[in-house]
Amino acid sequence: MNTDVILLIIAVAGLLVTFATTLYLVGYFRSASSSSVEEKDPRQAVAGGVPRNNNRGGLRALRHRRQGAAVVNENAEHRAQAVEVHDGADNDVEEATRYIPPICHLHRHVDNIIVDRVVGTSRKAMQKELKRQEREQLRKAHRKRMEAADADDAAREADLEAMRLRQEAEDQVEFDKWRALISVEDAGTDADVVDGSVDDSNLLMQAHKVVVLEDVAAEFGLRTEDARDRVAALVASGRLSGLLDDRGKFVSISDHEMNAVATYIRTQGRLTLHDLGRECNRLVRFD
């Protein structure tokens, strides 16, 4: 910007010098024309044969001629100097203006520089804004992906929790079912079980891990249905511990073995009948 201002000042100075030189030359040539007219007048007077009145007039004419010659010589010298000055000024102006563009071009150049800078600034600002918008879009996309991932994780955790609750409920139901099969609760007591044969049947049940109710009925002279009822009454009263099935068999199970089976079911959760039977065969002694 400073270079442009300096060039503008030099151009204006050159124009002023050129204008001053032109004015000077115009004034000089006008004065030279006036001197030529004055010089021609005495000569024309002499050539026309104008009579001299006296010697004073001749001396005056001679003096005028000499003055005219001196003026002519002086004018010639001034003209030569003026030509030299003009040539030098022209050279200086040409040299000075050789590298200076015209004022209109200079203004146009300055305007172009300003426009280029404004356009460059606008372009940079636009690029900066585009980059900012791009970063903002990437940030929003990343935030949406994270929110979607969090939502998926929350849904997955909710599904797992619901599955766990269902599993626990099913395990509890199955455990209660097997618990009911192993231990008979809330059963009544047969009023007929009052004689000593009850103790004998109890000892018989405990002596054998698996007994057939028909054999028990034959041993004590009872019907099979009565033997079943007496065994159920003993189990309900807590005097006998075991499992009575629908096929007429009774499996004697101690409290320790029953607790071991219950603990296994509770720790394993959901299991199949095959696994439960295999574990019962391992935990319960049948010999």
From TrEMBL:
State one Pfam family annotation: DDRGK
Alphabetical UniProt keywords: Membrane, Transmembrane, Transmembrane helix
Listed InterPro entries: DDRGK_dom-contain, DDRGK_domain-containing, WH-like_DNA-bd_sf, WH_DNA-bd_sf
Q: Which GO terms describe its cellular component?
A: membrane
Q: Name one GO molecular function term.
A: ubiquitin-like protein ligase binding
Q: Where in the cell is it found?
A: Membrane
Q: Where is this region: Disordered?
A: 37-57
Its topology with respect to the membrane? Single-pass membrane protein
Q: Which coarse location class describes where this protein primarily resides?
A: membrane
Give the stretches traversing the membrane.
6-26
Q: What is this protein called?
A: DDRGK domain-containing protein 1
Which species is this record about? Aphanomyces astaci
**High-level lineage:** Eukaryota, Sar, Stramenopiles, Oomycota, Saprolegniomycetes
